[in-house]
Amino acid sequence: MSGVAIWGVGTSRFGRQPDESPASLAWKAVLEALADAGTDSVDAVWVGTCFGAPGTAQRALHAAGITEVPIVTVENACASGTTALHEASEAVRTGRYERVLALGIEHLTSTFAGAIEPEQGDTEGASGMALPSIYAMSAARYVAEHGVTHEQLAAVAVKNSRHGALNERAMRRGELTVEQVLGSRMVADPLTLLQCCSLSDAAAAAVLGPPRDEPRDVRIRSSVLRSGALWDQRTDHVWGYEIVRETASAAYEQAGIGVADVDLFEVHDAFTIGEIVTTEALGLAPEGEGAALLDSGTTALGGSTPVNPSGGLLARGHPLGATGLAQTAEITWQLRGEAGPRQVEGARIGVVETMGGGVSGIDGNGAVVAVLEG
Amino acid sequence: MSAPDTSLSPDPRPQIEEGPSGAQVSGSLCGACGYAVALERPRCPVCHADRLEPRRFGPGGTVWSSTVVRIPVAGRTPPYTLAYVNLDENGPRILAHVIGSDAAPAVGARVRLTGVGADGDAEVEAA
């Protein structure tokens, strides 16, 4: 039987973890994923990390006795983990390897004291742009163009905080109100602090292999990776919209599904505006109408298509390399019916979406959309 | 705090020169497809033609979006205002610092390039 299945997943906790090393976080994720998969070894490993030191992957893996197999480290900004998932999936699908470990590792709090800044070799980095201000530019444009209110922006953080309160591995566990979100200090107009993800440390992993006779396995129906087109004066779309739209469209087509077939999503909500724009790019709402999904409760747990039941990047945390595999773990648990208090009843098809960026002049360094089926 | 480390030359920010009508971005225009770009490119990234010709853009432009940065950023003193500006006559979209105002200019507002600031940034002000 051809195809690719997720045999097992695992993650560390998410948060500021000064007493953990990148390696010790990875051990938790890897050992949980291997046990979950019912296997003790793999044939190859793809590792996503954005700011990890050279050798981060081997440093973590040899201590757990994963040696001698090919280990490949990939970097794609916020999509580094999902890029590792995509490459692992392709390696299994094409028959290159049988059992492949996809691992994401990031220890941001030992790397940054404040907001992540683009490279100084980029226009944005050299001009004093931090990542939050890149998204603030999107938010300001979107607010002016589509009339979205600051309360609607804040509603993303409120919804995802309610979800995160149900996730014992999440970084932020407290439920937020619109007043709290808008009352937190301004980072870059119009985004306030609680509309931005926090620096965090974590690892997450998945073991992939060919489909087997195991009811807990989750099929990867499709996985697509794209880099961004030029982003310049020719577009009025905010940064990161078109790359996600094109990647999602290709992933749906390869899976032979439409957006209406998807029961739940884990998407890239590093900043509140990101979830609104991304849900539009994924086809959940027409362009400019993404905030209506929050008003109606469509994308909240209990709604018809929950988005970020884990709490998303805003509540679970956003350790860049680990994020994509944490999203994958959440969808896997949901499709198995193992998501506990945040279970989406009857979930059969789930989508993972991550968009990483920072390089000047392009619409994102990379985006991955994967369609999973339980 | 010190100025940003731009020792990794060339400077990745738009190069500004004084033209007859004021400050202008010194960029390129593709002779094949008309694509305007502010920064150095080895060929036209849109049509791939090897016909990039030097061209100056501005000083007039329209704000595509803007924000006020209120958090610490290396080498900078917050708050400061940034804008993506589409330069006139199908010129490039550039990132510039907005001077002369503490508030972010509205989307669609008219601005004018004034030159290069002390930190080496392209600067605009309300037109």
UniProtKB/TrEMBL annotation, chain A:
Enzyme class, spelled out: transferase
A GO biological process held by the record: lipid transport
Keyword Ligase applies: no
Stored Gene3D superfamilies: 3.40.47.10
Every Thiolase C-terminal domain range: 236-360
A Pfam family annotated for this UniProt entry: Thiolase_N
Keyword match Transport: yes
Residues annotated as domain Thiolase N-terminal: 20-207
MF terms (GO), sorted A to Z: acyltransferase activity, transferring groups other than amino-acyl groups; lipid binding
CDD domains: SCP-x_thiolase (cd00829)
InterPro entries: Thiolase, Thiolase-like, Thiolase_C_2, Thiolase_CS, Thiolase_N
Keywords: Lipid transport, Lipid-binding, Transferase, Transport
Enzyme Commission number, as recorded: 2.3.1.176
Protein's name in the database: propanoyl-CoA C-acyltransferase
Species lineage: unclassified sequences, metagenomes, ecological metagenomes
Automatic annotation (TrEMBL), chain B:
Name of the protein in question: Unannotated protein
Pfam families (UniProt xref): OB_ChsH2_C (PF01796)
InterPro entries: ChsH2_C (IPR002878), NA-bd_OB-fold (IPR012340), Thioester_dehydratase-like (IPR052513)
Region (Disordered) residue spans: 1-27
Chain ranges of the ChsH2 C-terminal OB-fold domain: 58-114
